[in-house]
Write a structure and sequence with these properties.
six-stranded parallel beta sheet; five-stranded parallel beta sheet; about 550 residues; globular; alpha/beta; GDP-fucose protein O-fucosyltransferase protein
């Protein structure tokens, strides 16, 4: 990969746009008498009478149709007609002036600190921190539970049966699995046993559902949608069978399965056995192949029913407050989700700037962790170039710094970094920290004593990062993943006024690799490319990701 070639001190390449060259070729003067028919002439100049002719704008064919006397009469009355027309225009302007003024000063609804106000019309200048108000008033969230809703659910013992799932992976993958589990239970009219958060080989954590989420709120909020119980019913005596027995497990569920698959293939087994475990359950429900009301239910779970425990919410609020008051006065802050951990770099199979020793160590790491994909490594260089062109490589910290500076964010910007251990350590972070020295993590904002309680569970720390990013004035992602798409989706759903920036890594890779591009054209590329990548709702498309873009059916026209 080409190294970063842009800095504020780099000279701009000499360039001249075609428009500027054409403008330079156009004369700056013109013939006053030739090009401006309304100029004054001398009294004895014959062109004076010609320019007073009211028929001068008519083509000759139409002039010949007007009799000479009528033409003379028209000429003599020309000045009177102009006077009358001028009077009419003045009266019309006076009549319409109050209406025009009322439109310009007409109030519109806006919000401040959660309170709806009537705000005067003000043309908004471009902002680094917020999307334009006019772009944020077309859609509103509509997946919340309706007031006075009446449940038509059958009693627990009259549902189709019980389903049980393991929510695997990290916190955000588990969150998606929980939302899908509620939806699947609704599809089959089954009772959902509270999901178990399963430990895996990466997230070695024994966290339970109740260690992270408010169980009472979860069950209460969804009581009109799905029957949810805290534990396996007492009449089912051999509970270990549900975790180990193949007879109690549905294993053949394809990824992104349609709703009809569950009705045809899973529901009969639940009715027969009464209790069934579904595993694996990662991404086992599609998006555009399920009813709209099921997708709306998934949004209801994600944005309304799944609430973190009060102590997690309170600590996140404290961290966000400290971010906004780091300068002694109230200031906005940016949250940066920096995905450049060793595992992410290795799994990407992209090439990055580094010493020969670093590259050799990364090659050995990839060979050990992914031997089938690595093979002998001879094909990886071409693969790495292709992935970078397609924008499928994580952004390096230095690349992030240059993009943010090109967008206009000043050196003083307060940035909260949500990240694991960055591959390359402080040396890799140096370009970002030099350009934006006000980088902090939760470990720097809070004392060890404050964080000790949350260190019992890895997912508790991840929840703090999630909430501080969610509350930020600007959120910037650097690579895909469940964390980033859930943050962007939630910010879109909750109002999409704060910006959520998703860099176009494909276009940026071309700019980074251009050795002749100066700073000024690079800035133009960055600004133009990201004008429409600031977290506004987007129209959905086949196989869209509901978690990143909940526009339909979870949002309605305002």
């Amino acid at each position: 990969m080409a190294e970063l070639r842009h800095s504020a001190s780099m000279g701009s390449r000499a360039s001249s746009s075609p428009a500027k060259r054409d403008a330079a070729a156009i004369p700056l003067t013109f013939d006053r008498h030739r090009d401006h028919p309304s100029v004054d002439y001398d009294d004895d100049d014959p062109r004076r009478d010609r320019d007073r002719d009211p028929l001068r704008y008519l083509p000759p064919s139409l002039r010949s149709l007007i009799p000479l006397d009528d033409a003379r009469a028209l000429a003599s009355s020309h000045s009177r007609i102009l006077a009358v027309l001028g009077l009419i225009l003045c009266v019309a302007a006076l009549v319409s002036l109050p209406s025009l003024w009322s439109r310009l000063t007409a109030p519109y609804l806006c919000t401040k600190d959660g309170i709806v106000l009537r705000c005067p019309y003000v043309k908004e200048p471009p902002s680094l921190w917020e999307n334009p108000h006019s772009a944020t008033t077309s859609w509103k969230p509509c997946a919340e539970r309706q007031e006075n809703e009446i449940s038509d659910l059958p009693p627990e013992n009259e549902t189709s049966g019980y389903i049980f799932i393991h929510a695997e992976g990290g916190l955000n993958q588990q969150r998606i699995a929980i939302c899908n589990a509620v939806a699947v239970a609704k599809i089959m009219n089954a009772t959902l046993i509270l999901p178990v958060l399963k430990q895996d080989q990466i997230w070695k954590d024994q966290t339970k559902f109740e260690d992270i989420f408010d169980v009472d709120h979860f069950i209460e909020y969804l009581k009109y949608d799905v029957r949810i119980v805290r534990d396996i019913p007492d009449w089912f005596l051999d509970k270990t069978e549900l975790f180990t027995s193949i007879r109690r497990t549905v294993k053949n569920i394809p990824k992104y399965a349609p709703a009809q698959f569950y009705i045809d293939n899973v529901l009969p087994r639940i009715k027969e056995k009464k209790i069934m475990a579904l595993k694996p359950f990662v991404d086992r429900l599609g998006y555009d192949n399920v009813p709209a009301e099921i997708n709306r239910l998934r949004c209801r779970v994600n944005y309304h029913a799944l609430k973190f425990l009060p102590e997690i919410e309170e600590m996140a609020n404290l961290l966000a407050s400290r971010m906004r008051n780091r300068t002694g006065t109230s200031n906005p802050y940016m949250a940066l989700h920096l995905r450049f951990e060793k595992g992410m770099v290795g799994l990407s199979f992209c090439d990055f700037v580094g010493t020969r020793e670093e590259k050799a160590m990364m090659a050995a790491y990839r060979l050990k962790e992914w031997p089938r994909r690595y093979k002998n490594g001879s094909h990886l260089w071409e693969l790495a170039l292709q992935k970078r062109k397609e924008g499928r490589c994580p952004l390096e910290p230095g690349e992030v710094a240059v993009i943010l500076r090109a967008m206009g964010y000043p050196k003083e910007t307060q940035i909260y970094v949500a990240s694991g251990q960055v591959y390359g350590g402080q040396n890799r972070m140096a370009p970002l920290r030099n350009m934006f020295p006000n980088l902090v993590t939760k470990e720097e904002l809070a004392s060890n004593k404050e964080l000790d309680h949350f260190r019992k569970h890895v997912t508790s720390l991840a929840a703090l990062d999630f909430l501080v990013c969610l509350k930020s004035d600007v959120f910037v992602m650097t690579h895909g993943g469940n964390f980033a798409k859930l943050i962007i989706g939630a910010r879109r759903y909750m109002g999409h006024r704060p910006k959520s920036i998703k860099p176009d890594k494909g276009i940026m890779s071309k700019s980074f690799g251009d050795p002749y591009m100066g700073w000024a054209p690079f800035v133009d590329d960055v600004v133009v490319t990201h004008q429409t990548r600031t977290g506004l709702p987007e129209e959905t498309f086949p196989n869209y990701d509901l978690w990143e873009n909940p526009l339909t059916p979870c949002m309605c026209r305002a």
